């Protein structure tokens, strides 16, 4: 089981990083979400996989006979954060596409000089 | 309880700002009052830490390795004081006017969220909690960065978001692996348990993962490219907030985690830190010389000077680490001031392109002299704080016989002088370009826009005048960092205390 999880998280890291190296926004976002899923699985497998054991310690039970609940709560927190960030970056990508008509990262800001002098930000 | 205030006050202020009637004057006053309150709280934390040693708060009374611990040693206390000082300056700067659209989209609460995240990252004693606070701070800064309209700003926001999320994924990976081996997340408990479990391979892998994650946040050499690509686009006050605080969180986390978890000064990772710091200085400052925009020059200077703040970790002596901490303090103040100064150009000329600036010394000599102080302080001209901080960083290098490193640092200081002199010449001294000055309306620079700059400049001068006491504080901070026992005793409490006595 650990071996399988290790391979899965390795594949997720590799494909996530590969997608992040592409120039398109959609692939960047998919890459990011694969990467965060990969790290979640890595936490699960690094902390040890237990099967059919309760996450509580009753009195008089040896430490080996329970499932560590901490990694699961870490993953839960990371999933929540990852979800929020994913939603945010989807909205950002939508706005970028809406205002530029492009999802190529390198060409979004190509007319930066004219754009920023058209609509200056007040300090 | 006191330790939670720097986190709770911005949170309550942010909530209150959402609930209040959305009148901009009221919002600005409340945000400013919240920042002043946070400054009072952090100042009293610093006083308490100075008098009574390391302060610890076990949140919800869960004892140390099980719950989340907030810890303030001298380093943390000094850093949160700096956070609230920058908070006061940035919220004060909003009195000079904020884009109404930005204000309607939650500009004021978001600044408080960033302040809360940074303060939490500086105070927490739990490595997963550190990750969570970094995420809180990032989300706040993401939204602040992307309340933008122009294409350049959107591109900058995306670069910023993508690279920082990558760094977070690396950090999470490192934390997961660490927990898998050590079975705890409390930093003090990790510092106690990790040395027994470590293997050379795992040690190297983890330290490099942490270095990559924090290096991206801090802006170290091969990982800094997101920073100059994004920091020149937001308005001046946001730029000051991000430039002053976010990279310093990376530096802080690096110093905190490495001193606690990897206390072997001969480890290969410290050689890597040393080399990367030196390259960061050189590349950042050479990059700054190639730029033709005030805020881009500042961004590259920010990157270059990060090298000075991480180099002390590599040398691993109290004097060197203390020098780097002093440099962090000086750099936070000065770089924020200079980003606020860039707001003066945005107000008067609507641009920070150096080609379109100039003539400010002739029309507003007092303002120009005010801006001269942070420019020369960053350059390290004696007797300003930059000079004091550079002496504190370079002196220990010579003491540790790192002559090549000292030479590189001094050469880089020369490049900084060149870069700052060029900024001064191009933006203040040279005559105003004729077509722009005749066509564009010359907005007045009133008290609201100058007061935050004057506040930070006066603190820079204070840092110069009280350099002795401040550097003794930073040296104590460094001694505490390098002697981990005080930290362990304070956090883990009775058992460890009894064992140590």
Walk me through this protein's architecture.
The complex is a heterodimer of chains A (123) and B (501). Chain A is elongated, with a radius of gyration of 21 Å. Chain A has a domain at 1-49 and 70-102: Helix Hairpins, CATH 1.10.287. Chain A has 123 residues and is mainly alpha-helical. In chain A, α1 (2-20) runs antiparallel to α2 (25-46) and α2 runs antiparallel to α3 (70-100). Chain A has helices spanning 2-20, 25-46, 70-100, 105-108, 112-118. In chain A, 67% of the residues lie in helices and 0% in strands. Chain A is built from five helices and no strands. Chain B has 501 residues and is an all-alpha fold. Chain B has one domain. In chain B, 79% of the residues lie in helices and 2% in strands. Chain B has helices at 5-19, 24-52, 74-93, 100-104, 107-123, 127-146, 151-182, 187-197, 200-218, 226-230, 236-261, 268-290, 294-315, 318-349, 360-363, 365-379, 385-399, 403-429, 434-439, 447-465, 467-482, 484-492, 494-500; strands spanning 55-58, 69-72. Chain B has a two-stranded antiparallel sheet. The relative contact order of chain B is 0.10. Residues 497-501 of chain B have low confidence and may be disordered. The interface between A and B is large, with 47 and 53 residues.
């Amino acid at each position: 089981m650990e071996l399988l999880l290790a391979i899965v998280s390795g594949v997720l890291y590799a494909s996530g990083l590969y997608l992040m190296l592409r120039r398109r926004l959609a692939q960047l976002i998919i890459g990011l979400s694969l990467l965060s899923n990969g790290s979640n699985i890595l936490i699960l497998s690094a902390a040890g996989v237990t099967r059919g054991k309760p996450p509580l310690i009753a009195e008089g039970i040896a430490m080996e006979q329970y499932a560590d609940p901490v990694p699961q709560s870490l993953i839960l927190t990371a999933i929540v954060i990852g979800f929020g960030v994913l939603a945010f970056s989807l909205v950002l990508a939508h706005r970028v596409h809406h205002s530029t008509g492009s999802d190529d990262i390198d060409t979004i800001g190509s007319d930066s000089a004219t754009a920023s002098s058209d609509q200056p930000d007040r300090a | 309880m006191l330790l939670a205030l720097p986190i709770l006050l911005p949170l309550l202020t942010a909530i209150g700002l959402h609930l209040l009637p959305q009148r901009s004057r009221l919002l600005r006053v409340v945000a400013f009052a919240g920042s002043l309150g946070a400054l009072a709280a952090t100042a009293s934390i610093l006083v308490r830490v100075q008098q009574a040693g390391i302060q610890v708060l076990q949140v919800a009374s869960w004892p140390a390795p099980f719950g989340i611990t907030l810890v303030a040693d001298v380093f943390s206390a000094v850093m949160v004081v700096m956070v609230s000082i920058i908070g006061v300056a940035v919220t004060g700067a909003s009195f000079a006017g904020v884009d109404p659209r930005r204000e309607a989209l939650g500009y004021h609460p978001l600044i408080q969220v960033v302040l809360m995240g940074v303060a939490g990252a500086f105070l927490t004693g739990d490595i997963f909690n550190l990750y969570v606070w970094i995420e809180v701070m990032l989300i706040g800064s993401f939204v602040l960065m992307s309340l933008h309209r122009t294409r350049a700003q959107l591109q900058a926001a995306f670069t910023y978001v993508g690279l920082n999320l990558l760094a977070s994924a690396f950090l999470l990976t490192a934390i997961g692996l660490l927990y898998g081996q050590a079975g705890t997340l409390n930093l003090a408990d990790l510092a106690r348990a990790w040395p027994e479990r470590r293997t050379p391979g795992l040690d190297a892998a983890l330290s490099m993962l942490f270095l990559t994650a924090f290096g991206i946040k801090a802006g170290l050499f091969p990982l800094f490219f997101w920073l100059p690509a994004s920091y020149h686009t937001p308005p001046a006050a946001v730029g000051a907030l991000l430039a002053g605080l976010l990279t310093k969180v990376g530096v802080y986390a690096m110093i905190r985690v490495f001193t606690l978890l990897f206390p072997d000064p001969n480890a290969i990772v410290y050689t890597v830190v040393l080399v990367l710091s030196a390259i960061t200085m050189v590349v950042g400052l050479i990059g700054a010389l190639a730029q033709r925009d005030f805020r881009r020059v500042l961004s590259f200077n920010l990157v270059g000077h990060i090298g000075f703040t991480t180099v002390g970790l590599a040398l691993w002596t109290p004097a060197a680490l203390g020098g780097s901490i002093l440099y962090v303090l000086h750099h936070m103040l000065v770089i924020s001031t200079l980003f606020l100064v860039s707001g003066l150009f945005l107000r008067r000329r609507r641009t920070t392109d150096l080609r379109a600036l100039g003539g400010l010394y002739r029309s507003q000599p007092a303002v120009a002299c005010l801006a001269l102080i942070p420019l020369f302080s960053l350059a390290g001209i004696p007797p300003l704080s930059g000079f004091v901080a550079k002496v504190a960083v370079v002196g220990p290098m010579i003491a540790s016989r790192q002559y090549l490193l000292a030479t590189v640092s001094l050469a880089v200081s020369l490049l900084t002088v060149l870069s700052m002199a060029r900024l001064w010449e191009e933006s203040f001294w040279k005559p105003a370009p004729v077509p722009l000055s005749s066509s564009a309306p010359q907005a007045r620079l009133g008290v609201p826009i100058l007061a935050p700059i004057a506040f930070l400049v006066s603190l820079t001068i204070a840092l110069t005048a009280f350099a002795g006491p401040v550097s003794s504080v930073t040296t104590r901070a460094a001694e505490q960092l390098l002697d981990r026992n005080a930290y362990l005793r304070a956090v883990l409490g009775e058992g460890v205390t009894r064992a140590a006595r």
